[in-house]
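Data availability excerpt. The first of two example chains:
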Amino acid sequence: MIGTSRSTISNNLHAGHLNSTFKALVISLPIFVFSLILVTSHPTFAASELDPSNSILSNWYEKALSVNQNNVPALVEKGTDLVTKGDGEQAITWLDKALNIDPTNLMALVSKGAALRDLGKYQEAIVLYDRVLTIDPNDVYAIGGKADSLYGSGQHEQAILWIDKALELNPSEGKIQ
C-alpha cells in the first residue's frame, strides 16, 4: 500500500498537486489541536465556545498578552494565527519574540517555518524544520513542512523521501513508526 501511495504521491507531487494540501495540513492542524487543548482544558470554557468564530477562542492571546507580554503560548498562538491569515512577516515578528524567550518551543519553530515557507524562503524553513527534528525526530508538522519546503525549492526527490516518512505515521499517536 505504501508503494502504491508513494507512486500516486510522486505523480501528484511532480504535477504540483500536493503543495496546497501540505500547506493546509501543516498550518491548520497544529492550530486546531493547540486551540482545542487550550479550550477544553480551561475550566471556564463551555463546549459551545468551541465555535471558531467565537472571539474568546480566536483572540484569547490578545487578553493574555495585555497581562503579560512575555506569555510564550500567547505569542506563539498569535504568530501561528497570523501565518494562517497569510501575514508571514508579522507572524515571524511574534514568533521571534516567543523564540527569544523559549528557543526550543516546537510550535513556534514549526509555525515560523510555515511562515518562511509561505514567503518562499524554503531553505530557511528547512533549517527550522531540521532544528525541530533534532529535538523530536518524529514531529509530524516538521516532517510535513520539510516535505513541502523541499518540494517548493525544487528538491522533488528529497520531498518524496519525507512524504514516505509521513506515510508511515501512526495517526493515533502522531508519531512515525
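And the second chain:
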Amino acid sequence: MANLLTSGDILSSEWAPVIGVGLVFFLVQIVLCISFCFRTRGQERAIKRLSRDFSQGGDGKNGVQSLGRKHAWLQWVVFNFPANVTSPSNFTREDALQELDTQIASNGNYLLLQRMSVMAPLLGVVLTVAGFYWLHVGGEDQSLQTILLAVTPLVSGVGTGAVLALINQVLLHIAGRRVESLRMTARTWFDTVVWSRYGSGALPTNLTASQLMEHFVRSALDDMNRLSDTLAHAAEISVAMSALPSQFRRILDRKLPTTHNAGTTDQSGRVVTPLPRTAR
C-alpha cells in the first residue's frame, strides 16, 4: 500500500475502486448528516425564538407565516390551531405531535442516511466481487505473504463495507440526538403556547373588553348553531320514524295477496297451506 502511494500507481491498482467508492460513500453520508442536522437546528432555533416571544408577553406565533418551507410544522400548527379561536380544534395534541414525527421521518436526507446503513454491507460485497478482477493466481508455488497480498482486494472490500456501516451508525446517532432535541423543544412550545389554551378553554390575558364581548357573542352564536343543527337532525329522525308504519303497511299490502293465493283458510279464518304428499 505504501509503495503504491509513493509510486503513484494506485489509480491502476486493485485499491482504486475500493478507495474511490468508499470515499464517495463516506462523503455522501457526511453531507447528508450535516444537511439534516443544520435543518433541524434551524427549526429548533425558530421554535425557541417563539418560546422567548411568548415568555416576553407575545402570542408565541409571531412571524410563523413568513417562515419558509423548512418550517412546515409550525405553519401547520398555526393554520389548524388559530389564535383567535378557543373552541376545540379538529385535531388533538397527539395529532400535532404525530404530524411533527411524520415530517421529520419524511425528510429526504434522513431517509437516505437510514437507507445507507443497509447499503454499506452490500457495497462491501460488491467491492469483494469486483476484487476478483485484480486477483492474480500464479501457477508456481507462492509464499503465504504473496497469497495474502493477492487476496487483499477481497479483504479490503469486506472491510470497507464494515467500516462504512459503523460510520453510518455514528452519524445516525448524531442525527437521532438532533431529532429528539427538536421534538422536546417543539412539544414544550406546543403545550405552553397552543395546547394550554385549547385544552383548558381559557382566554388569553391580553384581550380587551371589546374582544371579550366579541368572543362571547361568537361563542353564543356557535352554540345556537349547534343547537339548531341538533334540532333539525332530531326533526328529520322524527319524520323518518313516523313514516315507518305506513311503509310497513304498504309492504304488508304487497305481500298479503300472494300469501292468500298460496294457501286456503279454515273455519277460524287462519291461512292454511297444504303440505305436499309423496306417492306411495
